[in-house]
Amino acid sequence: MTRQVVVIPDLHGRADLLDAAIRQFPDAHFLQLGDVIDRGPHSMATVAKLLELKAQGRATLLMGNHERMAQIGPDWYAQYMGTHDMGDYRRAMEGYQSWMRAGGETVRQELGGLTLEQFPPLLLEYLRELKRVVYVTADGEVHDQPPGAPSVLVSHAAPPVKHQQYPNPLSAALWLRPFEGPFPLPEGVVYSIHGHTPVRNPTRLNRHVYADLGAYQTGRLALLEVGNPQLHPKVTVLCGPGQPERANKYIQFGEMLPVTPVDLAAGKPGERPYYRA
């Protein structure tokens, strides 16, 4: 039996859009691209819902660069607790402060305080569950390694490739931007799907699809149905509360994919075209 797999790009604390995605695809297995936390208003509720879905066998969770930034401080602090080496503590504080500057401050405010000594257990649990790269085959199965059959590669920012700035391919998968490609794909991979780089519309560039619509600002969230790997994904765009005009600052490149907009206020596919600059 084929399982429906729906890819969800960067949420950044938009628990309302995650709930809307679940209503839109009540029987799907969700593959979340990372950058679930910070910047937006409800990081912890978003994390809690995704962990609940994973416990039900209904979600595969990937790491984004913001999760990686959030992870560095607690990891070094845990090491410091074993070594009592002040160098480890310094690295923990540097990692923590770097995340605060990059968006973590919104999580601290949401919680009413956040320190390395009292890091939220729910967030630690979430960070431990995250994968870097997966592959989806036509039957809807999600694989940790290239399966040898036609598949779609899914990761936060880019395929895992060696890069002069990121010699570890799994780090490159969290950070690289489209203009640093095109990126080679493993044998059998037909195309890849990524978030990380905000775009005005879901976009295909060579064999890579980019789908981060800046949901935490614009209120627009792309949902990509991954079916037959020989075809490109079917894209639904949820249109919720936000400032869609903020997309004006996002870059344009490649070929825009056709989308079906869903106006969340109306609760049904919108008749107006999806917002374009």
UniProtKB/TrEMBL annotation:
InterPro entries: Ap4A_hydrolase (IPR050126), Calcineurin-like_PHP (IPR004843), Metallo-depent_PP-like (IPR029052)
Pfam families reported in the protein's UniProt record: Metallophos (PF00149)
Cellular component GO terms, alphabetical: cytoplasm
Annotated Calcineurin-like phosphoesterase domain residues: 5-199
A Gene Ontology molecular function term of the record: phosphatase activity
GO biological process, one term: RNA decapping
The protein's name in its UniProt record: Phosphoprotein phosphatase
Native species: Deinococcus cavernae
Lineage of source species: Bacteria, Thermotogati, Deinococcota, Deinococci, Deinococcales
